[in-house]
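Design job #97: recover the sequence.
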C-alpha cells in the first residue's frame, strides 16, 4: 500500500505525463509510461515482490483485452466498409433521409435511439457514426460538432439502456438493482436530453446547413463504386449481432466477412486492395473524404491500452486507494456536498486510471458503505452514472474516449466541447441532489463507531 505522499506523486506524475504527451502530439504510451514506472518502483519499495507485481500487471492487462480487440476490429472494419462501398452508400442514403436543416439535432436523437437499443457506445458509433460523419462533411456541418452529437447520443444508451453492461455495472457496484436505480436516473436523463436537444437545435438554426445539388448526385462516389441495397448488409449484420447480445468482436468479425463478400461481388476488389486497406487504410486521391486508418495504425493504441490495464492491475491488487477514500469523501456531508465529492472522486480516478470500469467500480464499492449510512443506494448509482460513467468519454487519454475519437476520426479535445450530454448531466445531478436534500429530511442511522467515518 502506498503512502499518501507516494500516491500523490503517482497521480501527479501520471496526469502530467499524459497531458504533456497529448499537448505535444507524442504517443500517449510515452506519457503514460512515466507514471507507470513511478507506480511500479514505489510499489516495489512497499514490499511487493517483482513476481507479484508482474502478476498484477498481467491480470490488469487481461481486463483490457476486450477494448484492444475492438480497436483492432475497428481498424479492419472501417476499411472493409469503405472498399465494399458500404460507407459511400450509407452516406448517400443519409443525405436523402435526413433534413440538413436539423442535421445535428436529428443525428443526436438517431444516435440516442440506436444506443438505447444496442446498449453500447462503440457499436452505435460504428453503425451510425461512421456514415453520419461523411454526411456532415458533405452538408458543411463542422465535424467536431457532429462528433459531439454522435457521442452524446451514444452515451445516453451506454449510461441508461437496460441492455448496457455499464448500466448494470453501476447497479452491481452500488449494491442496488437495475430496477431500483432506473427511477433515480430518470430526472437527470430527461433534463440532460432536453438540454442537449436545445443545444443542437440552436446550432442547427444558426448553421443553416444545406447540401449542394451536385453533392446530392454523388457523382464521385458513383464513378468508383457500384451501389446496391445489398450494401446495407454489413451494417445490418453488426446491428443484429449486437441486438442479440453477441460479443463485440464476433459482431465486428461477422460484419467484416459480409463486407468482404459484397466488396468482391459488387466492387471487384482484389486481394491486394483488401490487404493494403486492412493494413494501411483506404486511400484514394479522388475521394479524400473516405480516407481511413488501417490496423497497423491501431498498434500504438493497443499497447497504450495494455499498459493502462497493467497500471490499474497494480492499483487494484495493492489496494493503494482504499485507505484514503473516506478522508477524500469527507465526514457528515449533506447530499449536495456528498454528490460533489463522489463526482470529484470519480473524475480523479478517470484521469489516472484511463478506463471507464475502474472509476465506476471504485466509486461504487468503496463509497457505498459510507453513503448507505445516510442516503439511499440508488442515489449513489445516479451520481456515479452522471459523473464517473460519462467522464470517460471526454478525458483525452481515457481508453473509451480514444476509441470514440478513433471511430469518428475526430480528436477528443475537438468533440468534447460539443458532447453536451456528457458535461451537462453532472450539473443536473448536483441540482437534483440539492432539491432532494432540501425536500427530503435525512434519516440518520445510529452513530457509527469512532473509527468509522461517515459522509
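Job complete. Output follows.
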Amino acid at each position: 500500500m502506498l503512502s499518501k505522499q507516494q500516491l500523490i506523486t503517482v497521480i501527479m506524475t501520471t496526469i502530467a505525463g499524459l497531458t504533456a504527451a497529448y499537448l505535444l502530439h507524442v504517443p500517449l504510451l510515452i506519457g503514460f509510461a512515466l507514471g507507470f514506472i513511478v507506480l511500479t518502483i514505489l510499489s516495489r519499495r512497499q514490499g511487493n515482490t517483482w513476481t507479484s507485481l508482474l502478476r498484477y500487471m498481467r491480470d490488469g492487462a487481461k481486463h483490457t483485452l476486450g477494448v484492444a480487440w475492438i480497436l483492432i476490429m475497428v481498424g479492419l472494419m472501417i476499411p472493409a466498409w469503405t472498399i465494399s462501398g458500404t460507407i459511400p452508400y450509407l452516406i448517400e442514403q443519409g443525405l436523402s433521409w435526413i433534413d440538413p436543416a436539423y442535421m445535428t439535432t436529428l443525428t443526436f436523437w438517431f444516435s440516442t435511439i440506436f444506443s438505447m437499443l444496442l446498449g453500447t457506445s462503440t457499436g452505435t458509433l460504428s453503425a451510425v457514426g461512421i456514415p453520419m460523419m461523411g454526411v456532415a462533411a458533405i452538408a458543411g456541418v463542422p465535424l467536431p460538432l457532429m462528433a459531439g452529437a454522435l457521442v452524446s447520443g451514444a452515451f445516453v444508451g451506454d449510461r441508461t439502456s437496460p441492455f448496457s453492461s455499464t448500466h448494470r455495472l453501476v447497479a452491481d457496484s452500488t449494491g442496488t438493482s437495475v430496477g431500483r436505480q432506473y427511477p433515480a436516473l430518470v430526472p437527470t436523463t430527461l433534463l440532460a436530453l432536453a438540454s442537449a436537444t436545445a443545444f443542437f437545435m440552436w446550432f442547427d438554426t444558426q448553421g443553416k446547413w444545406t447540401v449542394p445539388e451536385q453533392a446530392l448526385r454523388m457523382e464521385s462516389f458513383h464513378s468508383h463504386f457500384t451501389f446496391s441495397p445489398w450494401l446495407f448488409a454489413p451494417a445490418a449484420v453488426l446491428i443484429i449481432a449486437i441486438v442479440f447480445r453477441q460479443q463485440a468482436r464476433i459482431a465486428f468479425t461477422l460484419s467484416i466477412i459480409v463486407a468482404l463478400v459484397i466488396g468482391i461481388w459488387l466492387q471487384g476488389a482484389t486481394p491486394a486492395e483488401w490487404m493494403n486497406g486492412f493494413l494501411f487504410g483506404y486511400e484514394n486521391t479522388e475521394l479524400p473524404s473516405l480516407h481511413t486508418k488501417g490496423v497497423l495504425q491501431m498498434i500504438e493504441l493497443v499497447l497504450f491500452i495494455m499498459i493502462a490495464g497493467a497500471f490499474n492491475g497494480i492499483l487494484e491488487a495493492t489496494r493503494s486507494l482504499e485507505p484514503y477514500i473516506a478522508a477524500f469523501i469527507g465526514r457528515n456531508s449533506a447530499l449536495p456536498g456528498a454528490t460533489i465529492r463522489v463526482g470529484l472522486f470519480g473524475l480523479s480516478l478517470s484521469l489516472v486510471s484511463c478506463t471507464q470500469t475502474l472509476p465506476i467500480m471504485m466509486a461504487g464499492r468503496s463509497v457505498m458503505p459510507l453513503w448507505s449510512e445516510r442516503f439511499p443506494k440508488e442515489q449513489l448509482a445516479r451520481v456515479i452514472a452522471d459523473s464517473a460513467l460519462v467522464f470517460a468519454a471526454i478525458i483525452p487519454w481515457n481508453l473509451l474516449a480514444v476509441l470514440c475519437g478513433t471511430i469518428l476520426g475526430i480528436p477528443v479535445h475537438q468533440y468534447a466541447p460539443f458532447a453536451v450530454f456528457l458535461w451537462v448531466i453532472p450539473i443536473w445531478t448536483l441540482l437534483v441532489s440539492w432539491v432532494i436534500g432540501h425536500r427530503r429530511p435525512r434519516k440518520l442511522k445510529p452513530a457509527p463507531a469512532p473509527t468509522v467515518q461517515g459522509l
